[in-house]
Amino acid sequence: MAVLGKALFIIASVSTVVGAVDPPVAANVTNMTFSFNGTDLMGSYSLPIGDGPFPAVVIIPDHTLVTGDYEDIRATMIAQSWGMVGITADIFGDDESILSTETLAGRMDAALGAVSAMENVDSSMIAAFSYGTPTALMYALNGLGTDTLKAIVSFHADLSTNFLPEELQAVGPKLLVLSGGADDTPAEIMGLEVTLDTANATWEITRYSDAGPSFTVFENDNYNQLADMRSWQSSFEFIKEAFGITTFESAEPDGFDSVTAVDYNDTDGTALRGWLAMPNSTGPSPAVVILPDWDGVNEYEKERAVALAELGYLAFAADIYGADKQFVESTEDRVAEVGFYSTNPDIYFSRIQTAIEQVKMMNDGVLSEDIALIGYCFGGSVRQNLLSIEEKNHDIGVVLYSIRGGADAKVSVAFHGSFNVFNVTAATVSPYLLV
Q1: Which pTM does this prediction carry?
Q2: pLDDT by residue (tens digit) across 303-317?
Q3: Under 8 Å between Cβ of 356 and 371
Q4: Residue 57 pairs with which residues in a beta bridge?
Q5: Which end of the chain has less neighbouring CB within 10 Å, N or C?
Q6: Number of DSSP helices (H) and strands (E) in the chain, helices first
Q7: Prior bond to 286 cis, omega within 30?
């Protein structure tokens, strides 16, 4: 089975460690200096094995939490694990106050200039990481770094609006913001999205549940192993894409002739017809149950099943509406179907559970403990009827399965779903949720 075939279940197999831990490596760096307006500032670098030149990542520390050799350890990890030059740049020095925009810009320019001049650095592939204080974001939102930086990644930053410039400038580098769900407020995240859109930025924002401030700092009590692991991997993939090291092609398969129809019945006797795609591998495989969008289970879901099978999954496109409604053509009929299942979530839940049970019966082909749900649009939504005076959930899709106590899937993933206010009815939400 392809390595990618295990990706959905990595998060579900890691036990979350919260609290201070020992760093995974010892710092292995060489000191360097750079200067601005007569002020000498300290930095360090760690080189990967080889002749280079290499891509580089410049680490900007947290102004309020410079933790000894933390940044040096991260630089070492970048060199040893990623094959890039890891560089730290303490642009704050001995200044205890927040830097003015002019000083911040000048020191950042000086640091990036020193990095670009290093003989082991490919100056066309430089990214910046900032921890805590949103220094790199401030730099970008002032229209700076366009000619130097390909990407900026912000870890557990203070995302309140007090760091924003009075006048936004167009942002050049791609931005990835990695935020703790127990740190920044939803209002701050929404405000940042509006700001980045106004600045015409290319951005991604990822939130990690239960992660607080400093969730990547090993020796901090707020250290969160799962959030650290996920954010570290996400940042690596993000900068590789920004550097052009990773390129993407369409995942659309050539066709869906390889899928086979599977007829089965829900517990209420409704005849259902799903579509199965098998991976080209021997032995049991992890499985993905696909919940269709609002026009039923048809070509799109079959193509997704084939694409997942190519990654090493047993993929089953589940039927929600019934075997006689494989494709719902008119908008009026689609609205009617969505309305029915939105107001009858118990039936929808049963259809999901029945599809999972159908997959689990494929004993020789499936790892029954490794089943995921993926829902598209209607299949990945959750809503509440805001026009009703009753506090009644109108839940649908993979999120419905999770918040109503479904426990036979390890992971639930919602693609471009519709979300609104809802109540969690399960005492424990078992599947990991990715929205």
Answers
A1: 0.84
A2: 999 999 999 999 999
A3: yes
A4: 86, 127
A5: C
A6: 10, 17
A7: no
